[in-house]
Amino acid sequence: MTSNEISTPADSPTQSASADGVATTTSLPPFGELAVMLTGTLVLPGDPGWPAASSAWNLAVPQRPAAVVVAESAADVVTAVRFALRHHIRVSAQPGGHGATTALDDTILIRTRGLADIWIDADNAIARVGAGVKWVELQSALDGTGLTGPMGSSGDVSVTGFFLGGGLSMFGRTTGVGAHAVRAAEVVDGLGRHRWIDDSSDPELMWALRGGGGDFAIVTAVELSLTAAPEISGGRLVFPATDAPTVWRAYAEITGTAPDELTLFASMLHFPPIPELPEEIRGQSLCAVDAVYLGSVDALDALLVPIRAAGIVVRDTVRPLAPGEVGTVCEEPDDPSPAYLGTTTLGRFDDDVIDTILARAATPACGVLQVQIRHLGGALLTPSENAVCRRITAAYSVMAMTMVPVPEAMPAAHASVAAILADVEEFYGGPLSVSMLGDNDPLAAAFSPEVIARLRVAKNAADPDGVFRSSRPVI
Ligand SMILES: Cc1cc2nc3c(=O)[nH]c(=O)nc-3n(C[C@H](O)[C@H](O)[C@H](O)COP(=O)(O)OP(=O)(O)OC[C@H]3O[C@@H](n4cnc5c(N)ncnc54)[C@H](O)[C@@H]3O)c2cc1C
């Protein structure tokens, strides 16, 4: 046992698998043996709980793992990884599946929600969370401390999954790429060892975990730095869709001079006329601006004057926010949803770009539910040698998302999203973090060839038998 290895139970580390790595199995491993070693639950195809255990938040991604381990402890993760090594089957982790892909098929899929510990050292602005902790849970625990974590737009995604994907934070213009905040991690590595690692004990694995995805280890906990946030404010301003040209121009003007503490998104929203939606938005086309500000609501109101003046405000939720409320601003659905999305970036957001996007996206005929522009810049431009996603140089990102209520709707969803992204191709601004890639984007959309080559070396070092499989495999 190495000095940073954590003492764990039951069965011993395994022998290496075959020289060419972990093969996909042709016959099923003896899952009954695994079931009796777990304190959590093993769920197999055909079991009553299978549909819920095997499906992701994104219901439009049909997932077909070989088995699901609903882990209750880090010891369960160690047991599952050692079992996978012994029986030459791949293993992956999925906290919720906001970033689901079909890459997890045929793996033992570890559900990490049971790893739910939250530990906060407010004096030193540090938190440590289990791999299943969602941002809303950590942020709510920070209420009243004057601190925040670098969360993204959804409180429903896990802290760990967000960091592994690099993490584009609502506070990124102040704090930089989310993964910069990771200080240390508790992992089960490719030899089945349970280890606590940091930059001095395993710098290359730490680098890969800060934005390279889940191909290198199963993370059981992360330690992160928190940011001072004595006051946070924010909310959504909603306008009729017909105001989009003036509202988006006001958005362009403000984001051209905004302080780093202010993050603004602009969206076109086309809600379908379905009974599941509240009456006030059912069948409506709207334009929205979402704001999150590290400061008082009075200061935010002053910054938002040109936007409020740019159209008829039909709803206004701007208010002081507790850290636990940040994930409510963009009104993203927490319940599992069948979604298809694509993303790209922009080098600028001016009249030319606005007219190009709105020419298609201003009416429901564009076929998507939402086209969202995110203002980047600020500290996102600051490089860090310690993270895969060193910095994000694009000025804005674009996300086009639509719902896919039945599988037959997928080709139309692809076509609608692709058309919006193709319209803005000439304005491309540079790569995004891997967490923000669209469903069909290759790894090269996030990383340079040099970074991909280094990730492959890190993968071979941390996981010589290739037992781990992430949603974005690097090999
Ligand atoms: C509506 C919407 C809004 C979003 N907004 C943002 C945003 O603002 N910023 C942003 O950065 N991203 C955003 N995302 C993208 C992204 O989906 C999530 O940040 C990220 O995937 C975490 O979500 P999750 O916890 O559900 O992880 P999952 O999708 O469940 O996991 C993602 C992958 O991470 C790896 N992984 C997760 N946990 C572990 C672990 N413990 N050990 C090893 N590997 C692991 C696995 O490969 C897994 O497949 C958004 C996605 C949607 C659908």
TrEMBL record:
Key words of the record: FAD, Flavoprotein, Oxidoreductase
A Pfam family it matches: FAD_binding_4
Keyword Oxidoreductase applies: yes
Region ranges (Disordered): 1-24
Record domain FAD-binding PCMH-type: where: 61-229
InterPro entries reported in the protein's UniProt record: FAD-bd_PCMH, FAD-bd_PCMH-like_sf, FAD-bd_PCMH_sub1, FAD-bd_PCMH_sub2, FAD-linked_Oxidoreductase, Oxid_FAD_bind_N
Keyword Transmembrane helix: no
Molecular function per GO: FAD binding; oxidoreductase activity
PROSITE patterns in UniProt: FAD_PCMH
Cofactor (UniProt): FAD
Family: Belongs to the oxygen-dependent FAD-linked oxidoreductase family.
Protein name: FAD-binding oxidoreductase
